[in-house]
Design goal:
The structure holds two protein chains of two kinds. By secondary structure, chain A is mainly alpha-helical. Chain A has one domain. The longest helix of chain A has 49 residues. Chain B is α/β, with parallel strands linked by helices. Chain B has a six-stranded mixed beta sheet with strand order 5-6-7-3-8-9, with helices on both faces. Chain B has a four-stranded antiparallel beta sheet with strand order 11-12-10-13. In chain B, α5 packs parallel to α6. The chains are: A mainly alpha, B alpha/beta. Chains A and B meet through α1 and α4 of A and α2 and α3 of B.
Chain lengths: 224, 293
């Protein structure tokens, strides 16, 4: 699994977009105090991008047959995708934390609010929930169909929630369902404590584990 | 009892519109088996079964003594593969590919990989997307040879290559085979390749095995027959696998040259048949059915 994670990072680091993604995660930390909905979207986007990119390249190169011919258990091939999403979510959260700390160093005059620990936990949990659904769809329906499923499940509701809640800030925020949901959550004081975000993280990790088991079962039966 | 690298007994695999029926095939360790046949013969399906990428509906498959579908990574660590289109990630270069692939093989040798790349004239820093098809095939071969694979399975490795690239790839394979510890299954429809390196030939057609025997025996058993139409009587025709008729004469393939010689004598000439001749005459239905005029 670690070898595949190594491969994914070798590929991701070659993409120019990777700098934008790292910047978005950092910006997420900066914005978290004033606009948590949009900030979570900024953290969520690198996870979406990294998993979509990895899946797209497997599709483009027809890599699943090669991966299945390598000395790897099939569950390891599946697990590597989940590990990637988890790793990118963690990196995004760490960068957001760094962004928040930078804001703290700038002092209260920065006027952008302060980074809530609950925000980081909630962001991490929402990223994992996304991955749990998106990766199960990828292994069940393949790359082409799963793209549409992700759009229908995440982008369209986000446009609606983001637009109508008005909480995620502008057109970009409106494009993120996660942002919209998080924005609503922010309004109800979701981030003020740690209990609810921690519960979300726990639930998201459980969902990720269940999704991984399901995907492994699907992939074990697959023929090339 | 010789040790077998590959053993397939009565394997069947059915897809919509195609089925592999009762395939039985074996390869001793240290030898080269060439799998020939037209497109749709079942070569790639056979390779998928051997690599555990597909499950046989019935029959038994053993690769290095293990069921490839049930065996774990330990078996695949002993196998090398070169598929018809390179499936290595094109945005990475050879050095980066080795960096992650090497972690999967306990017996990987960076030194062997480096020397193979050098031998093949491959730039380790060049993106795989920028390599020619021949170079990508060589990269796959370099990977297969850098972890001491006991069996290398190659699906159409020379398809689409120009003659120079093909010749270079075959030279590389020849060198590997000469070392004597690697078994090779080589699927192709470019039959000249196999005349150079294969010890055994398995010919498939329509999902069935037509024959599987030593290359020299296959070539010795078949002959091209040429002669005037007057020599093509029903008795002679029965001894031919197929024949085509042209102005005033015919050409055919026989797998019973002695019978043909004794029947037609000096009226016909017998020549050495190539694997391509053998494949073409076996496959082309119009060569079987065309009545002599």
């Amino acid at each position: 699994m670690l070898a595949l994670l190594h491969k994914d990072f070798l590929m991701l680091r070659k993409e120019k977009m990777v700098w934008l993604m790292l910047g978005l995660a950092c910006l997420g930390g900066l914005l978290s105090g004033v606009q948590p909905g949009a900030a979570i979207f900024l953290l969520f986007f690198p996870v979406y991008w990294a998993t979509a990119y990895s899946n797209a390249y497997d599709y483009k190169y027809g890599a699943e047959a090669v991966l299945s011919s390598l000395p790897l258990p099939r569950a390891g091939i599946v697990g590597a995708k989940y590990l990637l999403s988890l790793a990118v979510a963690l990196i995004a959260v760490v960068l957001a934390l760094a962004g928040g700390l930078l804001l703290g160093l700038a002092g209260p005059k920065a006027g952008a609010g302060r980074l809530e620990p609950g925000f980081l936990l909630a962001a991490f949990g929402l990223c994992n929930l996304f991955s749990a659904i998106a990766l199960a769809a990828y292994f069940r329906f393949g790359y082409m169909k799963s793209r549409w499923i992700v759009i229908i499940l995440f982008v369209l509701p986000s446009v609606a929630i983001g637009t109508f809640s008005g909480s995620s800030g502008g057109a970009v925020g409106a494009a993120a369902g996660v942002a919209g949901v998080a924005g609503v959550a922010a309004l109800s004081g979701f981030f003020s404590g740690l209990a609810a975000p921690a519960l979300l993280v726990g639930a998201s990790l459980a969902a990720l584990a269940l999704s991984c088991l399901y995907s492994s079962a699907v992939f074990a039966r697959r023929e090339f | 009892m010789p040790e077998l690298a590959i053993e397939i007994r009565g394997a069947c695999k059915r897809y919509p519109g195609f089925s592999l029926e009762g395939l039985s095939l074996s390869l001793e360790k240290g030898y080269v088996l060439g799998l020939i046949g037209p497109n749709g013969a079942g070569k790639t399906t056979t390779i998928r079964l051997l690599m555990g990428l597909a499950r046989a509906d019935s029959g038994e498959i053993r690769v290095l003594g293990e069921d490839p579908r049930k065996a774990g990574p330990a078996l695949r660590a002993r196998l090398g593969f070169v598929y018809d289109e390179s499936k290595w990630y094109g945005t990475l270069n050879a050095r980066e590919t080795a960096a992650w692939v090497s972690r999967l093989y306990p017996t990987w040798s960076d030194e062997a990989f480096g020397s193979r790349l050098e031998g093949f004239g491959l730039d380790p820093g060049k993106k795989i997307d920028e390599l020619s098809k021949g170079q990508r095939m060589k990269l796959s071969l370099a990977v297969a040879l850098s972890h001491g694979a006991e069996l290398i399975v190659m699906d159409e490795p020379t398809g689409g290559l120009d003659p120079v690239s093909r010749s270079e790839l075959l030279d590389s394979l020849f060198a590997v085979v000469a070392e004597g510890r690697t078994s090779l299954l080589f699927s192709t429809h470019v039959t000249q390749d196999l005349e150079r390196i294969a010890d055994y030939i398995a010919f498939m057609k329509g999902g069935r095995l037509v024959f599987s025997e030593a290359r020299d025996e296959v070539l010795a058993r078949h002959a091209l027959v040429r002669g005037p139409l007057s020599a093509l009587d029903p008795g002679l025709e029965a001894a031919l696998v197929g024949r085509r008729v042209y102005d005033g004469g015919f050409e055919g393939l026989t797998d019973r040259p002695e019978a043909v010689r004794s029947r037609a004598g000096d009226r016909i000439s017998l020549e050495r048949a190539s694997l391509e001749d053998i494949m073409v005459y076996n496959v082309r239905e119009d060569y079987h059915a065309r009545p002599a005029s």
